[in-house]
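Please fill in the sequence for the structure shown.

STRUCTURE ENCODING:
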C-alpha cells in the first residue's frame, strides 16, 4: 500500500452550502484528510478551529462557504474558510456567560499563525495554520470539552449544543486567560 508523506504539498477544497450541517461535514472531511496525511495529532484542534469559522460563516452570512486544506512544507497545514461576506469579524470582549464572541480568540490562541483577506466582490477568507508534529495546541480539558460540544451540535438538540458551547468558552476564560476578562491588546 502506498503512503503519502505528510510534508508533501497537497490541497483539498470542500464547497459547503448554507446549511446547519456544514460545520459537521467540514469536521468529518478535515479529520479524514489529516488522518490520511499522518497529521492525526492536530486533528482535534484543527476541527475545533475550523468548526468555529464554518459556523460563523453559516450564522453571519446568507450564502455558501468553502473549506480549503493545504499541506505545507515543514509539516504545516493551512485551513482556510471562505464565505460571501466581505466583513471580517472583530475579536470582541464577551462576558463569561456569553454564548458568542470567542471564535477568533480561540483561533488566535491555538493556531500557530492566522489571518484574513477580503474582497468586496468575493467575500472574505479567514485562515489558520497548525504545525505537525509540534506543541499540543489545546489542553486535555479543551479537547474533551470540544469533543462533547461537537457531539451536542451534531445530535443533542439546540439547548445541549448551547450548553456545551458555553462550557468550552467558560473553560477557556477560566483556564487560559490571565485576568479572566481580556488577552493582551484588550481584545478576546
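FILLED IN BY: designer on duty
SEQUENCE:
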Amino acid at each position: 500500500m502506498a503512503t503519502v508523506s505528510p510534508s508533501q504539498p497537497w490541497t483539498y477544497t470542500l464547497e459547503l452550502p448554507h446549511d446547519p450541517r456544514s460545520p459537521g461535514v467540514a469536521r468529518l472531511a478535515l479529520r479524514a484528510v489529516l488522518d490520511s496525511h499522518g497529521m492525526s495529532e492536530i486533528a482535534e484542534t484543527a476541527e475545533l478551529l475550523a468548526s468555529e469559522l464554518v459556523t460563523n460563516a453559516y450564522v453571519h452570512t446568507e450564502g455558501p462557504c468553502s473549506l480549503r486544506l493545504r499541506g505545507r512544507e515543514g509539516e504545516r497545514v493551512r485551513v482556510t474558510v471562505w464565505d460571501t461576506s466581505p466583513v471580517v469579524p472583530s475579536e470582541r470582549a464577551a462576558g463569561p456567560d456569553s454564548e458568542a464572541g470567542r471564535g477568533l480568540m480561540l483561533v488566535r490562541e491555538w493556531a500557530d499563525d492566522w489571518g484574513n483577506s477580503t474582497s468586496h466582490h468575493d467575500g472574505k477568507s479567514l485562515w489558520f495554520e497548525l504545525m505537525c508534529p509540534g506543541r499540543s495546541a489545546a489542553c486535555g480539558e479543551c479537547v474533551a470539552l470540544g469533543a462533547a460540544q461537537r457531539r451536542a451540535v451534531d445530535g443533542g438538540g439546540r439547548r445541549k449544543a448551547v450548553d456545551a458551547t458555553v462550557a468550552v468558552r467558560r473553560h477557556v476564560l477560566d483556564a487560559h486567560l490571565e485576568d479572566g476578562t481580556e488577552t493582551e491588546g484588550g481584545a478576546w
